[in-house]
Amino acid sequence: MTLDGYEHDKTARIVAVNWVALAEDEGKRLKALGVDEGAEVAVIHRGIFGTRDPLAVRIGRMTIALRRSHALAIEVEPV
Amino acid sequence: MSRKRTAALVGNPNAGKSALFNALTGARQKIANYPGVTVERKAGRLILPSGEPVELIDLPGSYSFDAASPDEEVTRKVVHGEFEGEALPDVIVLVIDAANLEQHLVFAQEVLELGRPTVVALNMIDLAERDGLVLDPAALSEALGVPVIPTVAVRRKGLEDLSAAIAEAETHADEEAHKRWHITLPERRLGAKHMARGAILSQSARHTIENGVDRVLLNPWIGPVLMFGLLFVIFQAVFAWATPFADALEGGVGAISGLVIDTMPGGFFRDFLTEGVLAGVGAVVVFLPQIVILFFFILIMEATGYMARAAFLMDRLMAGVGLSGKSFIPLLSSFACAIPGIMATRSIPDAKDRLTTILVAPLMTCSARLPVYAVIIAAVIPQTTVGPGIGLQGLVLFALYIAGIVGAMVVALVLRNSVAKGAASGFIMEMPRYQLPRIKDLAIGLWQRAWVFLRRAGTIIFMVTIALWLMLSFPKAEPGESQMDASFAGMVADGIHPILAPIGFNREMSLALVPAMAAREVAVSALATTYAVDADDEDLAAEGVTDRIAALWSLPTALAFLAWFVFAPQCISTIAVARRETNGWKWPAFMVGYLFALAYVFAGLTFWIATAAGL
């Protein structure tokens, strides 16, 4: 299951990130923010309109914003 | 005598570095650019407990030394002593957000690997406590192997301890660096997790204030409504709150002018002072209150953390024209001034995205347009209300801002599908925690902005106004001839006027546009000087530029002039900064060309439609 489809406000563990699907510097930035295998994340807010883009994701005690295209590249499992 | 000591503030973005910097150095700050790059270098003087001064540098926030932006590159080079012209800092002050240890300790370990004398500021400890965290600084100090000082910049808590620790660390500055073993990112992350766990004595439920507030502010329906409501209030306030201050300033300038007329013998020098300097520079300086109010709101949005939420809300809309929420922050800054706006595009990782943002940034209504808009609106738009608390003048101003925004969006869409074609850009950013803005930081920020404006008024605008006054005053008119017709400036205006006459511009306006190439607000001082010189009796000369415009301009002409300034790229500094940021003349030339074309077309359309509508 990807982070995009995961339930709201529920903590999930990242099992894999499809780095190849992401632009190089975007991958770099996500990693710098702690998005990597093993990290625990939760989608807490979503944007407007049909695609509900972008997403606000809680990671640790921090909130980061990312796009749906990134969330689709992040594979998660329930904690 | 020993050489000058330096200390550098290093840390993640949103660690509260700038607030700590302000608290440590007070108003004794020097802001300049690093040579060769356009990254701001902020330095100030920190007085150690011994009374000895140390130069404190505020380095750009970084997530790692694996630089992803020019800002981060500066930080990496300076702390490695590889930055030419910048001495290796004697002490590193590592700033860590106490409420975000697990994240910030990752970069902290990378910094500590350098083995330089380091002091850790465990910053914003009050916010951590608010979030229910109880920390053990001693445990963290032991784990990191360097002193850890809890600080709260706003309440000046821990600052003395921090200065003392810096002084102590400084005594080791000349020792050989004890480089630590280099570890990989996953190892650092694991280490950060362990250290954070060891330093956190207890924590309550993770339910933070952010979550609750964001539930409203980021709500898909309520959020955008609140944001646009806020923007509307800001623009109303810019007009309404500033009026008494602007009136006072105007009265002051008028009083000085009257004093000069009363005390000095009539003649060349008195005319130069009253018609040239006071009429010209005075006409611009009266807009200081509006500029300060606009920056006040922008600084508050930044300081509270709301700016990142606005970027989040805007991302979907920006994606529609091929940009991202990241472009929103530079574009919003461009409402104050396009120069910091264009410089802020450096945080946009995608090159095409960044180029597009630079090219449309001048369409955002900068504060230099405010004097132009304000004078014209005050002159031709009646001071009536169109609803409870909504003035017609404020509404017109709001419409001009919207015109700039819509223009920028359409242009961005066209550019992203033509000259700046490329893959869709992404949007990844940290959302900082909410904070109360600190009065002192606001005051320092406002003072810096106001000073930049006043310096412009005192230099560029002053020089241009004098040059214009000289051109307007010579050669002297024959009896019965208007001074404007006889002057050099009149000849220049005659040359340009035929091009601008079809879009409804009169000769004074055509003339004002020439010196306004230096800066838009010069248009106002140019009009003021022109009308002051051209006035054939003292009573008329004493009338403000607003009254003269109200008397002499038709409504379609005035509206066309407003439409012109929505688009016209009349700012040498913006063109220069665009050249620097795009490394060449190609894109600035393109920018100037397309903006002038739009200005001409839309001023023309406005004039023709308004005339046809019988306004």
UniProtKB/TrEMBL annotation, chain A:
Record flagged with keyword Iron: yes
Entry-linked Pfam families: FeoA (PF04023)
Domain of life assignment: Bacteria
The UniProt record lists the keyword Signal: no
Keywords: Iron
Domain Ferrous iron transporter FeoA-like: 1-78
Name of protein: Ferrous iron transport protein A
Organism: Qipengyuania qiaonensis
Taxonomy of the source species: Bacteria, Pseudomonadati, Pseudomonadota, Alphaproteobacteria, Sphingomonadales
From TrEMBL, chain B:
CDD domains named in the record: FeoB (cd01879)
Domain FeoB-type G: 4-172
Database matches in Gene3D superfamilies: P-loop containing nucleotide triphosphate hydrolases
Protein name: Ferrous iron transport protein B
InterPro entries registered for this protein in UniProt: Fe2_transport_prot_B_C (IPR011640), FeoB_GTPase (IPR050860), G_FEOB_dom (IPR030389), Gate_dom (IPR011642), GTP-bd (IPR006073), P-loop_NTPase (IPR027417)
Transmembrane domains' residue ranges: 221-242, 276-301, 355-381, 393-415, 453-474, 553-577, 589-610
Alphabetical list of Pfam families matching this protein: FeoB_C (PF07664), FeoB_N (PF02421), Gate (PF07670)
Record keywords: Membrane, Transmembrane, Transmembrane helix
SUPFAM superfamilies recorded: P-loop containing nucleoside triphosphate hydrolases
Matches recorded under PANTHER family: FE(2+) TRANSPORTER FEOB, FERROUS IRON TRANSPORT PROTEIN B
